Amino acid sequence: MKKLLIAFTTVTILSACAQMQTVNIATPFDAKEASVINQVGKNTITGSALIKRNDGQTVTCSGEEVNLIPYTTYANTRILALYGNSSKGINTYNRPTFVPDVAEYKTMQKHTQCNAQGFFSFKNVADGDYFVVTAVRWTVNYATQGGSLMRRVAVKGGETAEIVLAP
Description:
- The protein is α+β, with helices and mostly antiparallel strands.
- It has one domain (about 1-165): Immunoglobulins (Immunoglobulin-like), CATH 2.60.40.
- Helix content is about 25%, strand content about 45%.
- The protein has four helices and eleven strands; from the N terminus they run αβαβββαββαβββββ.
- The chain has helices spanning about 1-20, 30-35, 75-85, 105, and strands at about 20-25, 40-50, 60, 65-70, 90, 95-100, 110-115, 120-125, 130-140, 145-155, 160-165.
- The strands form three sheets. The protein has a five-stranded antiparallel β-sheet with strand order 5-10-9-4-7, with helices on one face.
- A hairpin with a 5-residue loop joins β2 and β3.
- The radius of gyration is 19 Å and the shape is globular.
- The N and C termini lie far apart (about 45 Å).
């Protein structure tokens, strides 16, 4: 019985490892390209994020972190791997390993939080292209459902871009 348990555990671990995807990013992270995130601009990006469940209920990003990621070649490669495109999408928890996984990439982003109604806002955004990413998730029978939503947005000239992240 003990040997059977060890064999089962080994197969389970190996199966999980086999499903791990590695994404090699050939283009190096360019901090200068991403530095637009630190510039003060006159634009605002506001929005909401939601997913309609199979039972008809709508779930929002209430309480979730929202990330504003400047468009760079490095960021675009990561977004393509996660969402299959770089304009909008949903990721239902595909978590590849990125090589290299540059720590500075994660520090050159802005963050806010969705309010109780599922709305968010980024103010003083510099002109440029950005990815907006957040999660919408819920639990059914102890299992997390939902996913991560992404939308690309461009702003310039002091505009307010209003977006909805949805599948």
